[in-house]
């Protein structure tokens, strides 16, 4: 179903938010939109909201399975505001957000739905899940000048690291919070704004009254920003994303300086959770 604005959706269609998990897909351009929506429908989300311009076309088969909201992404603050409106409208529901050309993977996703995973995560008294945004990029930029190719996608097998997240007011490290870096954003950091270099995103979370997403992909609730509970490791997920590589090849300041994203630690992405687990790019925790 289509909605002319987010406000109209919240007035007339918010009933679809009664049961989660809910996926919010923000469409910035026309790259891999259909594939992104199909991927998240296949992951088992009960509801998929597509925030996208009216000009973009979708097959009727996809349109029938999603709720399409007319939307222009523009600055990051616009997306953050929209997510916070959805949070306010549907407390107590598991939610997820991403952009087009981004693909969620969680441990054992080939045989278990996102709902099954979140049910286990809830039993561990967790209301949010850390996801790592893993950069994907085309192997051959001559053949794929926008850096996007699902058939020939590469990722970095190493080069990831974490730093303590600092509480500047109290001059100490925040408990169980880290800033994560790596991938294309790390290797081409001279072209990436400082506040956009992190690859961690609290992409899966349970809404509640007063919860607010912040512009840096964290929340106003400190426990939501932790990577694990105090007593053991918890599940994490991965969002495999062409977004950064595509932006670097679109930006005039970097497009002509980057002839290839490939380096010695590039490996073909096989589109399985097993590869991501083997590379240590997500964590199964106690879920087997």
Description:
The protein has 288 residues and is an alpha/beta fold. The protein has 2 domains: 1-100, Rossmann fold; 103-200 and 209-288, no CATH class. The protein contains 9 helices and 14 strands. The protein has helices at 6-12, 33-42, 60-63, 76-89, 114-123, 183-187, 243-250, 252-255, 273-278; strands at 2-3, 22-26, 47-52, 67-70, 94-99, 102-105, 128-135, 137-138, 153-156, 161-167, 172-181, 200-206, 237-241, 266-268. Strands 1-4-3-2-5-12-7-13-6 form a 9-stranded mixed sheet. The protein has a 3-stranded antiparallel sheet with strand order 8-9-14, with no helix packed on it. The protein has a two-stranded antiparallel sheet with strand order 10-11. A hairpin with a 4-residue loop joins strand 10 (161-167) and strand 11 (172-181). The longest helix has 14 residues, at 76-89. The mean pLDDT is 95.
